[in-house]
Amino acid sequence: MLQPMQSQRLDELRTRLEEAGYVFDFVVATLDSTATPGELEHRQALGLLFEGIEERARIWQRKLIAQDASCANHRWPACTADLGQARSQPLTNDAIRELASENGLLCRNFRNPPYGTALQVADFREWQHMLRLYPDEQLQVLDWVGDAHEDPQRSAWSSYFDDGKEWWGIWCLTLYNPRRRTLSALAASATD
User: Fold this and answer.
1) Does residue 187 have a pLDDT over 90?
2) Distance between CA atoms of residues 22 and 16, nearest Å
3) What is the structure's pLDDT at 139?
């Protein structure tokens, strides 16, 4: 059974990162001591992630409407996700080490979203620790979207990824850390 992790530290990190303009969505869940997660549990973590994405979108829409009542008539695009259509690809140990590298693509995308940010490597490290992205702890990482340019259909299971296919890119990973008993999910999709 997955339990979304809730802590003041996690909430403060998420708020600080959002205010700095980062574009990743993430969730961290804990597992009970008897669980041995497989793809089903990874898919459940994706479900938690997309529930959070949809909830944050509704909150953002309500804030806009509160600021400008004419926004109430706007037709908001739905962020659909058909998790049953998502197909995972396990990452190799080398690819997992690359994810955790401050010179790797994940760190570069974290620090350089389309509209820029003042985030530093130290911010990436803090986020990495929150996700329990420790490559020396026998992580199981599944990639749910692949490369948007080489295999665009792998991400067709959610409209969330449409913007990122235009330019900046897309991310969707689940990370199981057996030592910490956590299952995290992250996603990003952005364009200019």
Assistant:
1) yes
2) 9
3) 95
